[in-house]
Amino acid sequence: MAVPIVPAMSKRTPTPPRHRLARESLRSSLPLLRLIERDGRLSQTEAAGRLGMTTGTCNLHFQRLERERLIRRADHIRGSKGRPTILWDFDRTRNACLLFILDVPFFQAALLDFAGQPLVEQRFDLSRARHPSDVQAAIDTFADAALDLAARSQIHVRQVVGGFPGLLDPLDGTARCAVNFPALEGFNLARCFATRRLPAWAGSLSLCFFFGETADAPADVTTLVVHWDLGVGAIGGRGDTVLSMQLGRHGAPEIPEIGHLCIEPGGRLCRCGRSGCLEAYTGGQAMLTELAAAEIRTLGDLLAAIAGGRQDAITTARRAAHTLGRSLAWPIQLMGVRRLVVTGPLSTVFAPLEEAFRRGLREGLTPELAGALGVQASTDSRAHLRAGAFRLATRLFLDPDSAARLPRSPARLD
User: Fold this and answer.
1) pLDDT of 275-294, one tens digit each?
2) 270 contacts 259 by C-beta, under 8 angstroms
């Protein structure tokens, strides 16, 4: 009787770390990159100990990051014997991000290395834009020149960030309901850079303002950043944490559209199509509507008139500032705000409006809260706006999963 031959069971050999890492994306090496970016100048032994990795696996991550030109050999420490210890650092000058910020009607575009230094930047006036293609043409023109410069300089562009007004689709970032800049309606930054194979993230302009104006704020103090331009918005937080006051339909945190909260039922018609919105009484566009007969037609005209001491412009702006201060009293109490920063174009002429703004605050706050609240205008809103977009770009590249933790604008106004 023949005995059946049973094949021997082969022992499964574990996949060597080198081969496993070769199949993984760069994402698996980002914890190491974040550690080096935060602490700087680490040896492989130190990094392995802090991350709980074997020295062999950590070495493979170092090889990958060096091959990708994300880290560099910063120093050598020679001991009494043996090989010198290599200290590694994040290569900030050979890696960069592209920023596109629409501070209506001006469009800031910049290529910054990861040290925060601008390699090229440009400011466009898009007041004549009428269609998303006009916005895309401006972005394409700058992006082509910036990417060509980066290629010639052997600089790798890692992240694209856009900061836009209006509402953005929480799933893909498409601009919706851009009431103060209709030409943005339907524009999608990610699609714009898909053919260039660059990760692009579009977020609310509010986030760029927030991260720019709070870069040096105490981490234990809640700050409310009020951006004041053709419209008005406010966003609060503490340290790197943005405090959202509402959740979307899918449970994701959303930035409240404070400019479109009703303060006067049946009141003035807002450009969003509803009536009585805060923005319809306090936004720059509302002031321009009141001053149209005085031939103050653009935001630039309004700023020049206030700065030049024109009484009609100052009176109108003070009335708006008073209403804005009074309306902000409730979110200040709700979030426990102790510091308030006014930013955006109108922050440049805040001095003659400040007392009216504070008077509005005092009408809604107890004397104790009003006295404890620090109020200031941005020292340089344009630079802080760009710095905020840069902080977002760095964060999103080093930790792509953090995008899910950032509040988004709602998909629509309800």
Assistant:
1) 999 999 999 999 999 999 98
2) no
